Amino acid sequence: MSKTLRGPAERTLELLREPPDEPDVSAGYLDLLGASAKKSPSLAQSVMESTFLPRIYEKVWRPIGFNLAKGWPLGPDTAEEHAMARDWLGLSQPGYASRPPATVLDVACGPGNVTRALAAGVGAAGLVVGLDASETMLTRAVADTPHGDPVAYVRGDAVDLPFRDEAFDAVCCFGALYLFEDPWAALDGMTRVLKPGGNLIILTSRRPLPTPRLGADLLRRATGFTAFGDREITRALTDRGYTALRHRRYPLMQVAAARRP
Ligand SMILES: C[S@@+](CC[C@H](N)C(=O)[O-])C[C@H]1O[C@@H](n2cnc3c(N)ncnc32)[C@H](O)[C@@H]1O
Predict the structure, then answer these.
(1) Is pLDDT above 50 for 5?
(2) How far apart are CA 105 and CA 79, in angstroms?
(3) GO molecular function of the protein, one example (predicted)?
(4) What are phi and psi of 37, to 5 degrees?
């Protein structure tokens, strides 16, 4: 293990299935993809890898786009969404005296907006690991995360998670399942790295009307974006044995949470 790694980054190395002999942390996050990352990502993922989007993502793109998709002002705003994530994952709310020492994975963390919100719900002995494939998003995440937060960032593939089985007490995947090439393989991976009894929460797209399969396939092929049906996510969770299912539907988004058996 590298002598230069301390705290959250060092603890994250211990969660890896195959820790590298010489971890690359030169950009402030642990880079497990290096030059091997996909050369021609989908249109949607190309936008995520641009240098422009991370600059406006948290303050402009995310609140406007997501709040509208959640039906704001009737649906939850960003703060309510973060509180829901902490609550449904069994974490504390900021300011509570007692906070669990939980180890949490934030899959496709982007610029770390949700990662930091989850970190506000774990105690000093807790750890939140944000994983993303985009160098530009992770650079922003590192810059915007206060030193001393129990947070570490990893550049890796959400569809092939690099962590050990049952490494995490809770797993969160917000605003990203619809971008993955194989969302069900990603869900299998999230299940694998979650401890039995641990909670998973997913915020993803919702197809408000039944769309012919051809239309959904064309959208996916053209943009890399999947619009999930009302029961697709909940069914995928129950098929994997999850219990204690919670599901909220908004006009163009849905949140589902459940406990791993
Ligand atoms: C819209 S952002 C979501 C950020 C944050 N989770 C949120 O809720 O605001 C989607 C992120 O998914 C990441 N992403 C897409 N496909 C990925 C994959 N296969 N592996 C890792 N990250 C991926 C993108 O790089 C992007 O940062």
Answers:
(1) no
(2) 19
(3) S-adenosylmethionine-dependent methyltransferase activity
(4) -60, 155
Mean pLDDT of the chain: 93
How far is the centre of ligand 1, averaged over its atoms, from the C-alpha of 33 (Å)? 15
Query: CATH number for the 7-259 domain, one of 2.60.40.10, 1.10.10.60, 3.40.50.150, 3.40.1390.10?
Result: 3.40.50.150
Q: Which atom of ligand 1 is nearest to the CA of 110?
A: 27
CB of 225 closer than 8 Å to CB of 205: yes
Ligand 1 center to 98 CA (angstroms): 31
Q: What residues are in contact with ligand 1 under a 6 Å CB criterion? A: 45, 48, 62, 108-110, 113-114, 132-134, 137, 157-159, 174-176, 179-180
Does pLDDT of 39 surpass 60? Answer: yes
Q: Which helix (H) or strand (E) holds 173?
A: strand 168-174
Location of structure tokens 């180890």: 103
Phi-psi region of 197 (alpha: psi -120 to 50; beta: other; left: phi over 0): left
CA of 117 to the centre of ligand 1 (A): 16
